[in-house]
Fold these 2 entries.
Entry 1:
Amino acid sequence: MGGGAPYDDGALDSLVVLVAENLGYSCRRVPGDVMLLEGANRLHVSMRNLRQLARLVPKDDWPALVADHVSTIVTAIEEPLDLSNFELAKHLLRTRIYPAEADNGILAARPFAPGLIEAVVVDTPTTVRTVTLEEAEGWPVAQDRLFELGRANVRGDGPLQCEEQELGDVRLSVLHGWTFYAATHVIWLDEYLELGPYGALVVVPSRSVIVAYPIRNKTAAGYGETVRAATELQVQAQHGYEDGPGSLSPHLFWWRSSGLTLLETRFDGDSLVLPRDFLATLSHLTAEQGP
């Protein structure tokens, strides 16, 4: 949270109302921690996301932050891009990971992992906006091809930074970048880290970070370390999800080449309880390798 200020719901609400009215919109709170703006169009501003952004900057910067945030949302709606020329549009395509609840049924999106979707977006110098099914159907390519192009463009933007950090008493790999698409890179986790057939434990708490623990220590001590890593990752997932910005998932996943499997966990006091089938796999791995 750096040099940011404690947020104040009342102050942020008032700023959103002020900016909205200056742009010709009425503004009111609706369920879901959202401000509904009504005027030339109807659009939503996530107050959760705005609070997360506000935590990162001094309070004196809040008016500029809110003005930029709301104006960008309004501009994306009021000045839609002409996407009819696919040869031009295809270079702007990216795939971005969103919480599953963001899928309103009209997006060019598909399941990515439990609780997460992968959506095709258009990335411009001023905004990122999702592509609708109607727009995608107007292009001369199959929808699967749009996801391939979007992923390729994310990859073409360059790799994330990857560093190892001691968190708790385990060493975890942290992949991060100032991009809306960091979470998409979990697809290529095995290109960032040395992973064996048992993959890695991984969390994607927000749009800009991935934290992972490769399951590769095959000794008896490795069993305990993997459990400790799972505990630390679960804590990091929850904190990162709450802090944002761009919250994605507070859950722990098991990454393998076939994709992400949700590990349903719970805390019993300070101890993390992991699924029995996952623990059985760890036990088998330890027994297989011997002391």
Note: The radius of gyration is 21 Å.
Entry 2:
Amino acid sequence: MKRIIILFAALLLTVSAFAQNGKSIYQKYSDAENVSAVYISPAMFRLMGRIPDMEVGEDKVNLSPIIRSLTGLYVINSENASINGSLRADAERYIKSGHYELLMEAKDSGQAVRVYTVGSDKVIEGFVMLAAESDEVTFICLDGQMPRNEFEDLMARELAK
């Protein structure tokens, strides 16, 4: 019985070691041919968080609290047909394993865009957008501790335009 428990525990540790996250997906695909990649570090977010209120259109928006709360931004845009399926599968596995909640989905002529968040009633810990069409896949992942009310206010303002 002890051996079975130890074997089961070892199996769980092995599975968790292979778990994907935004950073590992970025590292896996960022150097591939026909892939555009962007990473923004926590230090850059702290620097950007010192920017005063910004005017977006006719609105004055205070992005500082959201920007300062971010700990990583990972963007992968692939036009490499040989890896698009694997990139999409890895992103979907990451979304499922992180218990992300579907926030929005849009589909049109073979294109699909899905936006997900994970967190609590007060804080969003992660934001993922996965866009896929026949010849291109885009994965965007934001990590941090974003105040949910400020994030939702910003999203509502942008969607109302």
Note: The helical segments are 2-17, 22-29, 42-48, 64-69, 81-97, 148-160.
